[in-house]
UniProtKB/TrEMBL annotation:
Organism taxonomic ancestry: Bacteria, Bacillati, Bacillota, Bacilli, Bacillales
The keyword Methyltransferase appears for this protein: no
InterPro entries xrefs: Extradiol_RC_dioxygenase, Glyas_Bleomycin-R_OHBP_Dase, Glyas_Fos-R_dOase_dom, VOC_core
Entry-linked CDD domains: PcpA_C_like
Keywords: Dioxygenase, Oxidoreductase
Residue ranges of domain VOC in the record: 7-131, 152-269
GO MF annotations, alphabetized: dioxygenase activity
Stretch forming the signal peptide: none
Name by which UniProt lists this protein: Ring-cleaving dioxygenase
Pfam families attached to this UniProt entry: Glyoxalase
């Protein structure tokens, strides 16, 4: 059976300080904190989700803030750059905003597109690219109006210690189409409108080191739970050993490590983030899995307080 993912579902990364994480992704980038929960495997650590107004698949970046955690090193076996799509004509706004907030950036070009490249406060590499495709965000916050807001993922740049194997998986397992090569980058495209453009470094890279400022895994879309089960069967037939299906409350997940070292997840688009709290108040309450509800006070006391707040540079 031929299977094709529509593109990126979400990307998950490590950072150090939870409030700084909120200040950057909500305050600087204007994304909505759509879910405030915990790492199900380490409930003393937040799991924070940022995206468009509803955290739609293809828009959500998620973080594990480990206070005092080690600094990571971007390298092979990782997402090297997380790319966001912004509306056509918004580059001047974003360049001015980054400059005003003291965030250094550079311009780069590839495959006929221009990118603004910068890093978050933990060193995670980020790019903005103008794209026509993708539903505009309806969320505005601080100094980012909705008509300039990030739509969602533009895609990602992947670093592999075995690029040919990684590219084989993208084509033959995940169903992306190879579009061409420019320098050391090979471009692939999925069928969706967001999170659909993947560039792979053709040069093998030494292993990165996981930690703050690096991506833990990249998740690909399955449209619903039924297709998600089919994806697991497909991954097994392709010679990999995925995890069992794991209920992550807001999507079902399976994980496997492709042969270039990158941890892949396949996540279902359903049920989404609004099934356990109202759309109007997404991200405001600490949401816990049912097995931790009887320990809510204990879990909450072990987490640092955080708030979504406008940056000083936006309130002057």
């Amino acid at each position: 059976m031929t299977m094709k993912t529509a593109g990126i579902h979400h990307i998950t990364a490590f950072v150090t300080d939870a409030q700084r994480n909120v200040d950057f992704y909500a305050g600087v980038l204007g994304l909505r904190l759509v879910k405030k929960t915990i790492n199900f495997d380490a409930p003393e650590v937040y799991h924070l989700y940022f995206g468009n107004e509803s955290g739609s698949p293809g828009t959500a970046i998620t973080f594990f803030p480990w206070a005092g955690g080690r600094k990571g090193k971007i390298g092979g076996g990782q997402v090297g750059v997380t790319v966001y799509a912004v509306p056509v004509g918004s580059f001047e706004f974003w360049q001015d905003r980054l400059n005003r907030l003291g965030i250094a950036s550079t311009r780069t070009e590839r495959f006929g597109e221009s990118f603004i490249r910068f890093a978050d406060w933990d060193g995670l590499a980020i790019e903005l690219v103008e794209r026509e495709l993708g539903t505009p965000s309806r969320w505005s916050f601080g100094g980012v109006p909705a008509d300039m807001a990030i739509k969602g993922f533009g895609g990602a740049v992947l670093n592999s210690f075995a690029p040919e194997r990684t590219m084989h998986v993208l084509e033959s397992v995940m169903g992306l189409e190879r579009e061409g090569r420019e320098g050391e980058l090979v471009r692939f495209r999925a069928s969706g409108e967001l999170g659909n453009v993947i560039d792979v470094n053709h040069t093998p890279m030494g292993w990165g080191i996981g930690g703050a400022g690096t991506v833990h895994h990249i998740a690909w879309r399955a449209k619903d739970e039924a297709e998600h089960r089919s994806w697991r069967e497909h991954i097994v037939r392709s010679g990999f050993e995925p995890t069992p299906v794991i209920d992550r409350q807001y999507f079902n997940a399976i994980y496997f490590r492709e042969e270039g070292g990158i941890l892949f997840e396949i996540a279902s688009d359903t049920p989404g983030f609004a099934h356990d709290e109202p759309f109007e108040t997404l991200g405001e309450k600490l949401m816990l899995p049912h097995w931790l509800e009887d320990r809510r006070d204990e879990v909450a006391q072990g987490l640092p307080p955080i708030q979504v707040r406008e940056l000083e540079g936006d309130t002057q």
